Amino acid sequence: MISKDQFQKEIDIIIANAIREDVGDGDHSSLACIPKHALGKAKLLVKDTGVIAGVDFARQVFAYVDPEMNMDVRIADGERVNFGDIAFYVSGRSRSILLAERLVLNAMQRMSAIATKTRYFADLLEGTGTQILDTRKTTPGIRALEKWAVKIGGGENHRFALYDMIMLKDNHIDFAGGIPEAIKKTSAYLKENKKDLKIIVEARNLDEVKQILAEDGVHRILLDNFSYEDTRKAVQLIGNNCQTESSGGINEHTIAQYAACGVDYISSGALTHSVYNMDLSLKAV
């Protein structure tokens, strides 16, 4: 996984690029009618129910736009919210509040939706010993925000990108000439390049599980689109040799049954690619 410093760099890039995209040569609406030194105050109003996420991100956005703005946080990231709640107040130059408004809302609405869905899935897994994971099925350019939201919601992050973990999926295996060849070539590559990366290998059936187990150095086996019965058989075959992960169309109706099969992780792209934004507003007070 990437370090905290690397992750923060990703957040910094998102903020800088989003402000560049939105502001251009100036927020002319505010410049036209708001005096330069006018002060104001606004509240983040919740108009929905769920889990709030992005409060700390909002703090970073406001600080980037204008270090003299102040936030009074009333509800922290990860807390449940209801219609009418106020997550925070922000005060400072009115122009600065308006300049940051859209980025804060866009990010928090999406992050809160992801955190809410993740919390729902995590609650379904409570007591099973299985953890919910995200995937790389994220919105281009804002992956760090979406993976941050998964953590806030109680889930765990899979690899961040292509560079921080090895994941040999069906196409890698087919292009490499088979499971043994793919794993051996990968192990040699890591040794040659002095890289310490964990290896996950995807299995499409029980025979492929056996092929993976015959090789050394695999950290986790990904059971892709397995039935409940085959998942249970795979978990028994794998035992303590490596970690197990189920994926492939698993939803709120099937997640508990897959967890009951004994897998360590369940990954779901739906955490980030199939959500409806939480309704939030930033209103002057």
TrEMBL record:
<dbReference type="Pfam" id="PF01729">
    <property type="entry name" value="QRPTase_C"/>
</dbReference>
<feature type="domain" description="Quinolinate phosphoribosyl transferase C-terminal">
    <location>
        <begin position="114"/>
        <end position="283"/>
    </location>
</feature>
<dbReference type="InterPro" id="IPR036068">
    <property type="entry name" value="Nicotinate_pribotase-like_C"/>
</dbReference>
<dbReference type="InterPro" id="IPR013785">
    <property type="entry name" value="Aldolase_TIM"/>
</dbReference>
<dbReference type="InterPro" id="IPR037128">
    <property type="entry name" value="Quinolinate_PRibosylTase_N_sf"/>
</dbReference>
<comment type="pathway">
    <text>Cofactor biosynthesis; NAD(+) biosynthesis; nicotinate D-ribonucleotide from quinolinate: step 1/1.</text>
</comment>
<feature type="binding site">
    <location>
        <position position="159"/>
    </location>
    <ligand>
        <name>substrate</name>
    </ligand>
</feature>
<dbReference type="Pfam" id="PF02749">
    <property type="entry name" value="QRPTase_N"/>
</dbReference>
<feature type="binding site">
    <location>
        <position position="169"/>
    </location>
    <ligand>
        <name>substrate</name>
    </ligand>
</feature>
<dbReference type="InterPro" id="IPR004393">
    <property type="entry name" value="NadC"/>
</dbReference>
<keyword id="KW-0328">Glycosyltransferase</keyword>
<feature type="binding site">
    <location>
        <begin position="247"/>
        <end position="249"/>
    </location>
    <ligand>
        <name>substrate</name>
    </ligand>
</feature>
<comment type="similarity">
    <text>Belongs to the NadC/ModD family.</text>
</comment>
<feature type="binding site">
    <location>
        <begin position="268"/>
        <end position="270"/>
    </location>
    <ligand>
        <name>substrate</name>
    </ligand>
</feature>
<dbReference type="InterPro" id="IPR022412">
    <property type="entry name" value="Quinolinate_PRibosylTrfase_N"/>
</dbReference>
<dbReference type="GO" id="GO:0009435">
    <property type="term" value="P:NAD+ biosynthetic process"/>
</dbReference>
<feature type="domain" description="Quinolinate phosphoribosyl transferase N-terminal">
    <location>
        <begin position="28"/>
        <end position="112"/>
    </location>
</feature>
<dbReference type="InterPro" id="IPR027277">
    <property type="entry name" value="NadC/ModD"/>
</dbReference>
<keyword id="KW-0808">Transferase</keyword>
<comment type="subunit">
    <text>Hexamer formed by 3 homodimers.</text>
</comment>
<feature type="binding site">
    <location>
        <position position="224"/>
    </location>
    <ligand>
        <name>substrate</name>
    </ligand>
</feature>
<feature type="binding site">
    <location>
        <begin position="135"/>
        <end position="137"/>
    </location>
    <ligand>
        <name>substrate</name>
    </ligand>
</feature>
<dbReference type="GO" id="GO:0005737">
    <property type="term" value="C:cytoplasm"/>
</dbReference>
<comment type="function">
    <text>Involved in the catabolism of quinolinic acid (QA).</text>
</comment>
<feature type="binding site">
    <location>
        <position position="202"/>
    </location>
    <ligand>
        <name>substrate</name>
    </ligand>
</feature>
<dbReference type="GO" id="GO:0004514">
    <property type="term" value="F:nicotinate-nucleotide diphosphorylase (carboxylating) activity"/>
</dbReference>
<keyword id="KW-0662">Pyridine nucleotide biosynthesis</keyword>
<feature type="binding site">
    <location>
        <position position="102"/>
    </location>
    <ligand>
        <name>substrate</name>
    </ligand>
</feature>
<dbReference type="InterPro" id="IPR002638">
    <property type="entry name" value="Quinolinate_PRibosylTrfase_C"/>
</dbReference>
<dbReference type="GO" id="GO:0034213">
    <property type="term" value="P:quinolinate catabolic process"/>
</dbReference>
<protein>
    <recommendedName>
        <fullName>Probable nicotinate-nucleotide pyrophosphorylase [carboxylating]</fullName>
        <ecNumber>2.4.2.19</ecNumber>
    </recommendedName>
</protein>
